Amino acid sequence: MIVLMGGGSLSIAFDVSIDPKWWNNKELGWCVGLNDGNIIGCNFAARKSLFCKVEAFTSNLGRKGSNLLSSEEADFLQRASESCAVILFVTQMVVLHKVYPFRVDLRYILRRAWWQGKSIFVEQHSTFKSIPKVLGNILFGMVLLFLRPNRSLEQSLSQKILHV
Question: Rounded CA gap, 141 and 125, in Å?
Fold first, then answer.
């Protein structure tokens, strides 16, 4: 068995200048990268052969300029998983992510939710055919995030990843 990818999770640390008593990691953690023990983009390594096998990150996703498109690593992880690559989740491999005050602000959370909804849509539809449909899907994606943030993808992937 050759492991083609390994990664770990992320732990958040709030900037000492903020004390968000209202913050709830379960409901809002996705806004700052908390991933419920799944592999996250800032904390994985992959062999070059895996990139050759499933291609690199899609250029439709990812942060560019002021946009907050994301999920390029989730898309890559999904394609790696579908290719039957051996992927390890290493529990001791944890990145500490400092959360700055601007990310614990309602305006940022709403903006982040908007872009995550858009990311989900772009991930599922590579072209934009109709503006009303695009906006509807973005809003639908935002609602899904607040009700159940990407749990189905995480659950299906966690069943295929070896935890060590």
Answer: 13
Q: What is the DSSP string of the chain?
A: --EEEEEEEEEEEE-TT---TT--HHHHGGGGT--TTS--GGGEEE-HHHHHHH-S--TTSS--TT-----HHHHHHHHHHHTT-EEEEEEEEEEEEEEPGGGSSHHHHHHHHHHHHHHHHHHH-SS---HHHHHHHHHHHHHHHHHSTTHHHHHHHHHHSEE-
Distance separating alpha carbons of residues 134 and 120, to the nearest angstrom: 11
Residue 37 has pLDDT above 70, yes or no: no
Closest to 81 measured CA to CA, from 41, 50, 58: 50
For the stretch 53-80, pLDDT in tens is 888 887 778 788 887 878 788 888 888 8
Give the domain ranges of the chain. Answer: 3-163
Is the C-alpha dihedral spanning 16, 36, 147, 76 positive or negative?
positive
CB environment 45-69: b (16+ within 10 A), e (fewer): ebeeebeeebeeeeeebbeeeeebb
